[in-house]
Amino acid sequence: MKKDFWTRFYEILPGFIVWFIFIALFVLSFIKPLLVIYIIIIYDIFWFFRIIVYMQVTIIYSWSRYKKVIKVNWTKKLEKEFSEKKKDIYHAVIFTTLDTPYKIVRESLEYLYKTSYDKEKMIVVLSGEGIREKDFKEMENDLISEFSEKFLKFKTTIHYLKEDEMQGKGSNAYHAGKILQNIIDDLDIYYGNVIISNFDIDTYSHKEYFSYLTYLHLTEENPERVSYQPMAIFNNNFWKTPFLMRIVGRSTTFWLLYEFSRDAGRQKLFTFASHSMNFKALVDVGFWQKDIVTEDSRIGLQCINHYNGDYKIKAVYIPLSMDCVSDKNIFSAMKSQYKQMRRWAYGMENFPYIIKKWTKNKKMPFGIKFKYLFHQFEGGVSWATAAIVMFLFGFLPLQVINYTNVTGNIITRNAPDILKFIMNISLIGLIICSILSFLLVPKKEGGMKFFDYIFVFIQWIFLPITMIIFGCFPAMEAYTRLMFAKYLGFWSTPKNR
Rounded to two decimals, what is the model's pTM? Predict the structure, then answer.
């Protein structure tokens, strides 16, 4: 489909800025190495305060909220405070799958069944893909036999791709959502009393998740205009995946904890991966967009636009557990991890959407528009550039100065020590991450050995490497693809254990 000038301009802009930064720093390192040294030192100091001071403080704050929330028995609290009102609240869960093994699908449904919320108030839709119809049919009857009587409704369906759709989770979720709407209509349930959760197929639900969502719903001033973003941890296969993938998974969890500090009142939080929302809002905006890669983040933006900014994305401090990326061997796993991060970084496709849709919306407050637009753009550019600028470009101009015998001032002569000092202080962040990561480690079959304890801590020294390989590089590719209109299709992360 041909796109208009401004859409292409906004698609090009993020990648252009990223490459401009790299090319400018590279060229200036040879022409004006002293200037680059000043820039890098200032940049490193900025990121020192951002990551070590601000980010670590907010992560610790969110961690304390998480520890406080999971200690509460929300099922009992719900019964005590809202024993009558909770009877009107239903939960609907959508699982979409392409080629996920039966074992993983069954385990996700089993964890859902083990949650504490009344199963007579839960509707489940499992949707396969037409291109894998045979594989889905092979496990469908067994799943129906086991789970059809465990929930109010358990429905399986197959999504067949249409001309106006992209193969992926968004189009499948759209299809499943329409099936769900028919079920809710047949049951004559008010849409505003249904909380819909769109889960990745490997999502293991925390026992109190749905009770907590119900409590939040009943205590919200306007519950029909709220999305809920749970804390994602990647523990399902923690001990069966390469350590590099564990670091990426944990880094994602800590990023979410950092984002959680940007609460709904500050209008900066995006929806991501497995998330929940009110079904009435979902119907009002026309369900998930079915022709994009990152429908998970787009749906929250759709709601914000539709309700003219009067919409919350609320942090949920009860976790959902998913898989770390894993594959046949470490090299295949690294390749899959790269592709997953490239797909997440492709969320920059929201940038043209925000500018074009929201600038036309005169009813939405400017402050909300600016915060989300800036967070999307600055966060994306930093994703692609920060680690490379800090860890690589900090040394190039120093080598040029040493080679050309350029005489500098006292700052220049001490630049290596300044940069080394900043990096050493930054180790505080790694220590905090390693401690929190250790506290999230799941039990290991056969128990943990001494080396396991040690390695959970020391593996974090590889964080700079993962930030570049699985952070900067896939983001650079994603934005470059948008620049040259080499658009990504949806790539489903293999579920191998």
Answer: 0.91
